[in-house]
Write a structure and sequence with these properties.
Elements: E1 9-10, H1 20-26, H2 36-53, E2 58-63, H3 66-77, E3 83-88, H4 91-102, E4 106-111, H5 120-129, E5 134-138, E6 140-141, E7 146-147, H6 150-159, E8 163-167, H7 179-182, E9 186-190, E10 201-206, H8 208-217, H9 227-235, H10 246-262, H11 264-284, E11 288-289, E12 300-304, H12 311-320, E13 323-324, E14 326-327, E15 336-340, H13 347-363, H14 372-382
Parallel strand pairs: 1-13, 3-4, 3-5, 5-8, 8-9
Antiparallel strand pairs: 2-10, 6-7, 9-10, 11-12, 12-15, 14-15
This protein binds 4'-deoxy-4'-aminopyridoxal-5'-phosphate.
4'-deoxy-4'-aminopyridoxal-5'-phosphate binds next to helix 3.
Length: 383
């Protein structure tokens, strides 16, 4: 009889597999949110996040999602009539356009062909031509799998004196983005990707220039998103504004500890290696990618379906092989699958995912040699 595991391994680009130590940290009686031991844990978590963000500014971790973090960044530094430049590499880049439009912000957009990134020279030219207050760039756009050259763009943002918002939802904690060093004024992120926590948190890193701009704005028309209401609680969690998701913060505390215990440089290097290994394995099976290899993300891969392989059948068969991968989003639906390789996963989980891809393709009559993908990935992992 065929054995079946009850739950598949979740290899979509978020939520990512949750380490048992994180689940264990959350699996306690819910503390009062201003109760001493919880306050200490909240403080430690925020201090750890500050280290990860690399900023002398502030950090915020509250109930919400990545999208709420994006909206908070926009409403705290921009007001009606301000000009915003959006560099979009896909669905999540475009989300900033929609958010800004709701608030009457004037938006210009730079886009690239799917799978490519906008060249920094093009961004420089645009910044020189317009009087922009801010610039948004998605570090890794999870729809296309491209990774933007944040360091170079941060340099441009400084030169042109615009506030630089980076969407780190699919990057923070996996890819380097030291805020103060790279000229990033705000990082918006969340917990269910590289931190490997169940979803439900809005996380922001806010640099000194963004804090100054918030002061200049005075009262804003958004309430829950207003940093001025939240920051006193982040500085002193014995205070109350709105009840935080206590058990998720306990999970984040453990997740942040894991990131720092691994070491930031080591964790970033591991993600670059995993990305390379996964793509080497898939390429050895003859598969191709949407993202250009010189800008392919360390955190996920966007894998084009070969002729004759349908999205429905592929993902259903993968699931029977106990691995959950994601389909394409927006105009890319049906054309590719997305596989995550971020957070607290092990080499063995990469390899088992590749094994499932091999078995699935074989079952769907795609010609391949079983084991070829795994061997290529292992060769990269062994260096
Ligand atoms: N930005 C990026 C790059 C994302 O991948 C996502 C979620 N996939 C979001 C923003 C939105 O985050 P959330 O779903 O937590 O609102």
């Amino acid at each position: 009889m065929k054995m079946r595991r009850r739950d598949p391994l979740v290899m979509i680009p978020g939520p990512t597999p949750v380490d048992p130590s994180i689940l264990k940290a959350m699996d306690v009686v819910t503390y009062g949110h201003t109760y001493g031991p919880f306050v200490e844990i909240y403080r430690e978590t925020l201090a750890g996040l500050k280290e990860i963000f690399g900023t002398k500014g502030e950090v915020l971790a509250v109930g919400g999602s990545g999208t709420l973090a994006m909206e908070a960044a926009v409403v705290n530094i921009l007001s009606r009539g301000d000009r915003l430049l959006v560099v979009s590499h896909g669905v999540f880049g475009n989300r900033f356009i929609d958010i800004a439009a709701r608030y009457g912000i004037e938006v210009d957009v730079l886009t690239a062909e799917p799978g490519e990134v906008v060249a920094p020279a093009v961004i420089a030219e645009k910044l020189a031509s317009g009087n922009y207050r801010a610039l948004t760039v998605t570090h890794v756009d999870t729809s296309t799998g491209v990774c933007a050259p944040i360091r170079e763009i941060g340099q441009l943002a400084r030169e042109h004196d615009v506030l630089f918002i980076v969407d780190g939802v699919c990057a923070t904690g996996a890819i380097e983005e030291p805020m103060d060093e790279w000229g990033i004024d705000i990082v918006v992120t969340t917990c269910q990707k590289a931190f490997g926590i169940p979803p439900g948190l809005t996380i922001l890193g806010i640099g000194p220039k963004a804090l100054d701009r918030r002061q200049e704005m005075g009262v804003i028309s958004n309430y829950y998103c207003d940093w001025d209401l939240w920051l006193p609680i982040m500085r002193d969690p014995t205070k109350y504004f709105s009840t935080p998701p206590v058990n998720l913060i306990l999970g984040l505390h453990q997740g942040v500890k894991m990131v720092l215990a691994e070491g930031l440089p080591q964790r970033f290097a591991r993600h670059w290696l995993y990305g390379k290994a996964m793509r080497a394995g898939l390429a050895a099976l003859g598969l191709e990618f949407l993202a250009d290899q010189d800008c392919a993300a360390p955190t996920l891969s966007t894998v084009l379906y070969p002729q004759g392989i349908s999205d429905d059948k592929f993902r259903a068969t993968m699931l029977r092989n106990h691995i959950l991968v994601a389909g394409g989003v927006g105009s890319l639906a049906g054309k590719l699958f997305r596989v995550g390789h971020m957070g607290n996963i092990a080499e063995s989980e990469l390899l088992v995912t590749l094994a499932a891809v091999e078995l699935t393709l074989k079952e769907l009559k795609y010609p391949l040699t079983l084991g070829a993908g795994i061997a290529a990935a292992e060769a990269v992992l062994r260096g």
